[in-house]
Specification:
The protein has 470 residues and is α/β, with parallel strands linked by helices. The chain is built from 15 helices and 21 strands. Strand 10 and strand 11 form a beta hairpin. Helix 1 crosses helix 2 and helix 6 crosses helix 12. It is globular and about 70 Å long. The two termini are 31 Å apart.
Length: 470
């Protein structure tokens, strides 16, 4: 029996190897035990799935296993985005949801996440309780007696789109005459943005289910959005909007075909929500996300809160404080008045709204913000290492923290999540281990392109020197 561990947002693994029916049954049983221990059987569990191979099969098996243990089940009529499944939890007042998805991972992966009753990522406490149940099981769990009367099929798409129409100024987008080119990447976000903006000029590409995602990853980074960029560039007045495998992340393409990265998107949306929408509260970002948020907070008189990596920490904050916007550099985003869960459909729609009300390309607005708070250049490196080398580097960060890097003094070391070194000039880098792979991730942010290359080179030399001590 393998040990199953939940990462920052559920369990993901390689299909037909570790992610198989016996192990899926173990996880579902652990969630069933948690549900019954907390008197959630009558409230029920929503079961959703994405567009991957066998996701629908696993979802059906999960629904039958839950019902066999006397738990009410809502089973999706089709593949649904993660934010739609989270919304369904609130719509049906369910105890929680099981979502089968590997998000933006390659097609050979699948995963399970548990979404509790508050419709956001499971807290560390809930995750540990489910993992404890898994550890106690010790073997494959077989389904209980059939109970089809406890399974209800559902489709909350119409209600979800109504929620978005209450959050988005669709009429402003329509009046602006903006053309929307949409790429759901052959995945489960297909139809949602097109449905939201049904009265606007819309072209949706890659809008059929393909578990191979057209031969690429369903990850809306610029390197996977070439066709979308070309189409936007060929239009006179357009914006490109993309969603990932389960539509909880996004990709944005400006009118000239330029890709807008997630750090730039959160900065633009923060400005839009506060300066244009007049929302009040705080802004939240993970430790790996741009400090442009902090500068905008200083400019706008808004407090900024830094959290560990993982949207569950943003979600926890959203449940207790008035978070105007919360986000992470990897593309998670939500706003005040919405779910404490990542929603790439919402993020795309908000960017279309910003483009419409500003009357100018997104990069033009970004340049205006740079003029107010300065420029920011970001990069992330993933460095694959043997475990002893990885351990040696992290030990050096902890026991012999740097006082200088290259020509710069280090002003502060933060250990919220990993090791974040703040330089005297405000630039920074973060060294953070992967919890599931033999690699470390290093995040960089500087105020100039030249400074970024200089800092990356200096940190690489230092990390290499540390690794030689292993």
């Amino acid at each position: 029996m393998i040990e199953i561990k939940f990462g920052t947002d559920g369990w993901r693994d390689l299909m037909y190897d570790r992610f198989n029916l016996p192990n899926v049954r173990r996880v579902v049983n652990a969630i069933a035990r948690y549900t019954k221990d907390h008197h959630g059987a009558d409230r029920g569990i929503v079961v959703g799935y994405d567009a991957r191979f066998f996701s629908d099969f696993f979802a059906k098996e999960a629904a039958e296993a839950l019902a066999g243990q006397g738990i009410k089940v809502y089973l999706g009529e089709r593949d649904f985005p993660t934010p739609v499944i989270a919304f369904a939890v609130t719509l049906y007042r369910a105890f929680g949801a099981i979502m089968f998805t590997a998000s933006h991972n390659p097609p050979e992966y699948n995963g399970i996440k548990f979404i509790p009753e508050y419709a956001g990522p499971a807290s560390l406490e809930i995750t540990k309780a489910i993992e404890a149940n898994l550890a106690e099981d010790g073997g494959e769990i077989l389904p209980g007696p059939p109970a089809p009367e406890l399974i209800t099929r559902f489709d909350p798409s119409a209600e979800y789109l109504t929620r978005l129409r209450n959050l988005i100024d669709v009429e402003a987008v329509k009046k602006a005459g903006l053309e929307l080119v949409i790429d759901p990447m052959y995945a489960t976000g297909r139809g949602y943005l097109a449905g939201l903006f049904r009265d606007c000029p819309v072209e949706e590409i890659h809008n059929r289910r393909d578990p191979l995602f057209g031969g690429a990853m369903p990850d809306p980074q610029g390197k996977f959005l070439g066709e979308l960029m070309d189409l936007v560039r060929s239009r006179d007045r357009a914006i490109g909007l993309a969603t990932d495998g389960d539509a909880d992340r996004f990709g944005i393409v400006d009118s000239d075909g330029a890709y807008i990265n997630p750090n730039q998107v959160i900065s633009l949306l923060m400005w839009h929500l506060i300066a244009n929408r007049k929302l009040t509260g705080i802004a939240a970002r993970t430790v790996a996300t741009t400090h442009m948020i902090d500068r905008l907070g200083d400019l706008l008189g808004v407090e900024t809160v830094e959290t560990p990596v993982g949207f569950k920490y943003i979600g926890e904050l959203m449940r207790t404080r008035p978070v105007i916007i919360g986000g992470e550099e990897s593309g998670g985003r939500s706003i005040q008045g919405h779910l404490p869960e990542k929603d790439g459909i919402l993020a795309c729609a908000l960017m279309a709204e910003l483009r419409a009300v500003s009357g100018k390309p997104l990069l033009a607005t970004l340049e205006e913000l740079y003029a107010k708070v300065g420029r920011f250049y970001n990069r992330r490196l993933d460095i694959h290492l043997a475990e002893p080398v990885k351990a040696a580097i992290l030990d050096k960060c902890k026991t012999a923290p740097l006082e200088r890097i290259g020509a710069h003094k280090i002003r502060e070391l933060r250990t919220v999540d990993g090791f974040k070194f703040i330089l005297e000039n405000g630039n920074w880098f973060l060294i953070r281990p992967s919890g599931t792979e033999p690699l470390i991730r290093i995040y960089f942010e500087t105020d100039s392109a030249e400074g970024l290359e200089e800092l990356i080179a200096a940190v690489k030399l230092q990390v290499d020197a540390w690794g030689k001590t292993a």
